[in-house]
Write a structure and sequence with these properties.
The protein has about 400 residues and is of the alpha/beta class. It has helices spanning about 10-15, 55-65, 75-80, 80-95, 105-115, 130-140, 155-160, 185-195, 220, 250-260, 260-265, 270-285, 290-310, 330-340, 370-385, and strands spanning about 30-35, 35-40, 100-105, 125, 145-150, 170-175, 200-205, 230-235, 245-250, 320-325, 345, 345-350, 360-365. The protein has two domains: about 10-45 and about 290-385, Aspartate Aminotransferase, domain 1; about 55-285, Aspartate Aminotransferase, domain 2. The protein contains 15 helices and 13 strands. Bound molecules: pyridoxal-5'-phosphate.
């Protein structure tokens, strides 16, 4: 697929799934230093550039001066503060949902929702491409997993129809898929869930902050409220630029989480200073819509230009722009060749993506300039001559 680069046989260590950690020696911005090399990064989920926003950094510093650096305990013991509660209240106002519960991270939030809302043996119907945390959550919940073809509403309805009627079912999808960047057909999925009385959960880790009138995410942008999607989970580690996660929904669902979710109860609460910083990030998400506008313009520009160059982009309108290569070895070679041209775009390999679907996950941010994108496009063009 990429005649400009030499394909090598699949190295043994790849087949064994060994991963290496690259060391970034600079802050989370498009210009990075990785293992001593200055590169333009297309590898971060800091979609709005808030990880280094001066107001968010200032809020974190102020929060640390007021609260110290740690929370000192689990939420149910002593770790829950007014800083946490103010953030939860601000999020529930913003989203128009009864209540919000903060979590240490998205992985634990997903474990918590499935473990606390599903009875043993209950059917959990998931999109085949859902995040690993949602699959791991099925094990903790001791649920019965059924997977439907990616984005396929009739297959989802078929799987739901197979659920044992007495145990009920939970339908789970991502809003924007983390490795493919495409959007789930949320309105249709909500309809099929409602038709069989199944609970519906959306993990909007990659949609929150980016979609909707004031960034409330893909669920709001599809005009769905908490009646249609009672369980909305999202993270702060992406568009918000900080760390942590939340679940928002009707009061009874949130209370169930507080009472039953083990990954919520048996862990140290988020540092309150982080809640203060995330609260400021929320103000930026709401108050600086131009970041979202610029990001979507950049996505359009990148897609138009890449498609003119005949690059094999997946159909995604989000800042996640996967360049589909196929073979793991070829993807790694392409990633290395880009790095030699000053670009950091790591290869995404099986088992993170299905075998034969290795790719570069090009991730765009409002902090990228037009010239950053042009640099990437030129490098891809030189490595991937137009196919005839
Ligand atoms: C779709 C999705 N859900 C959940 C998570 C987990 O979130 P966190 O990184 O906060 O644990 C991620 C992050 O990688 C994700 O992409």
């Amino acid at each position: 697929m990429f005649p400009g680069i030499e394909s090598r046989p699949e190295p043994k260590r790849l087949a064994m799934g060994v991963r290496i950690r690259r060391v970034r020696e600079s802050s989370c911005r498009p210009r990075v230093v990785v293992d001593g090399h200055r590169l333009i990064s297309f590898a971060s989920n800091d979609y709005l550039g808030l990880a280094t926003h001066p107001a968010v950094i200032e809020a974190w510093s102020t929060g640390a001066r007021v609260w110290g650096v740690g929370s000192g305990g689990s939420v149910l013991l002593s770790g829950y503060t007014s800083a946490h509660r103010e953030l939860e209240d601000a999020l529930s106002d913003w989203l128009g949902r009864d209540r919000v519960l903060l979590f240490s991270n998205g992985y634990m939030a997903n474990l918590s929702v499935l473990q606390s809302h599903c009875r043993r043996g209950q059917t959990i119907v998931q999109d085949r491409l859902n995040h690993a945390s949602l699959y791991d959550a099925v094990r903790l919940a001791q649920g019965h997993l059924r997977r439907y073809a990616h984005g396929n509403v009739s297959d989802a309805a078929r799987q739901l129809a197979q659920a044992v009627p007495s145990t009920g079912a939970l339908l789970v999808t991502e809003g924007i898929f983390s490795m493919d960047g495409d959007q789930a057909p949320l309105a249709e999925l909500a309809r099929v869930a409602c038709a069989v009385g199944a609970e519906f959960m959306v993990d909007d880790a990659h949609g929150i902050g980016l979609w909707g009138e004031v960034g409330q995410g893909t669920v709001a942008s599809c005009h769905l409220g908490q009646d249609e999607v009672p369980l909305l989970m999202a993270t702060f580690g992406k568009a918000f630029g900080t760390y942590g996660a939340f679940v928002a929904g009707p009061a009874d669902r949130i209370e169930t989480l507080v009472q039953k979710a083990r990954p919520f109860r048996y862990t140290t609460a988020l540092p309150p200073a982080l809640a203060v910083a995330t609260h400021e990030a929320l103000r930026q998400v709401i108050g600086e819509p131009e970041r979202r506008t610029w990001l979507h313009e950049q996505v359009d520009y990148f897609r138009r230009s890449a498609l003119e160059l005949d690059l094999p982009l997946a159909p995604s309108r989000s800042p996640i722009q996967p360049l589909m290569v196929g073979s793991a070895a070829e993807t790694q070679t392409l990633s290395k060749a880009l790095e030699a041209r000053g670009i950091y775009a790591p290869a995404i390999l099986p088992p993170t993506v299905p075998r034969g679907k290795a790719r570069l996950r090009i991730s765009l941010s409002a902090a990228h300039t037009r010239s950053d994108l042009n640099h990437l496009l030129e490098a891809l063009h030189s490595l991937c001559p137009r196919r005839i």
